Amino acid sequence: MSSLSSRPGFSLDTPNLDQTPVQLIVNLNVSLIDWDSIVLTTWSLFSSVQAACGNMAEHFHINTPLLESAAMSKRVGTTVYLKMENSQPSGSFKIRGIGYLCQQLKSRSKGFVCSSGGNAGMAAAYVTRKMGVPATIIIPSSTPHSVVQRLKDQGAHVKIVGKVWDDANAEALRLVKTEGLSYVSPFDHPLIWKGHSSLIAEAAASLGPNVKPGAVLISVGGGGLLCGVVQGLKDVGWMDVPIVAMETVGADCLNASVKTGRIVTLDDITSEAKCLGAKTVCTKAFEYSQSNEITIISEVVTDKQALHAVETFLDEERVLVEMACGATLAAVYSGVVHRLQAEGRLPALLDPLLVIVCGGSNIDTEQLSILKHKLQTK
Ligand code: PLV
Description:
Blueprint: H1 20-28, H2 35-53, E1 66-69, H3 70-76, E2 80-84, H4 94-105, E3 112-115, H5 119-131, E4 135-139, H6 145-153, E5 157-160, H7 165-179, E6 182-184, H8 190-207, E7 215-219, H9 224-235, E8 243-248, H10 253-260, H11 283-290, E9 296-301, H12 303-317, H13 323-333, H14 336-342, E10 353-357, H15 365-376
Parallel strand pairs: 2-10, 3-4, 3-6, 4-5, 7-8, 7-10, 8-9
Antiparallel strand pairs: 1-2
Ligand PLV binds next to α5, α9 and α13.
């Protein structure tokens, strides 16, 4: 029997990926064990994960679980896999990209300033505390008090500026100029996209060599997750897998831009999914939406649909996520996937769906009932 650790260059002590080979073997799901082919398959998957992760040797994010959802699979008629980014230490996928960016900037930085709807800030506060570098997080007044407290608990200096993220961002850019702080965008930087891309490499490794998704479902705010997912799909050779990019009405800057064929800036953010509330999508995300190298299907749901998705997910999967994530889940619960199949934009016989459960900290039972009340009376 071959042993994993006897392969040249392979060490089960590799710091960032030490659990991956074990997880891969578990996920291969074989009844007759052919250890040589398992080791070879595992080795090639492990190598592609390593290649995709580049030099992200020491990182702050974790390899999140990939769970099969029986309830969602039943609804869609194909297997649904959930990439549980809500279980990241900062509560969302943001830690992947923000963590990587902060690591790269650390040696040149006397302190960071991050503008955020909440989750990029949570990620920045977490990683800067771990790195021992001071951080100022600028958030708009729409961010719940509980998030302000959690940011402070991470040791960050918190400033509340303006009504929406764009206002907070203007203040962050001002502090970069006046105080010489290093700017951490919540979504618009190639190093952020590289960090986010690791979630696709991980999902590919968990799925194993014989499973390729029929589509990836994600939410879009400023477009950083979208750019990271495209990069991840490139890294694992899945550029033929379409992305369903979900937004809510009133935070739909990508959809508005796709419809008009040029980058559009929204007048205001009227959605309650505040973490999708960038008025303008980043240029790279818009460029991907227009390019022939990948299919990006831009879809919009109402706030009520996003909230209904949050509640259904809580009831069926026993996991609480914020409305920004509810937009993705609504693609399943509100029939967007079925409609896209009926319209011929997704195949009728769909391969498994990969749903990125982006997570989010802007939610708790109190916030959930506030949102329910607000949206009932809207
Ligand atoms: N939230 C950013 C931007 O807010 C932030 O500062 O936290 N899902 C969740 C839970 C998010 O927090 C975000 C972004 C997204 C999805 C969308 O990601 P993006 O911005 O990379 O498209 C204004």
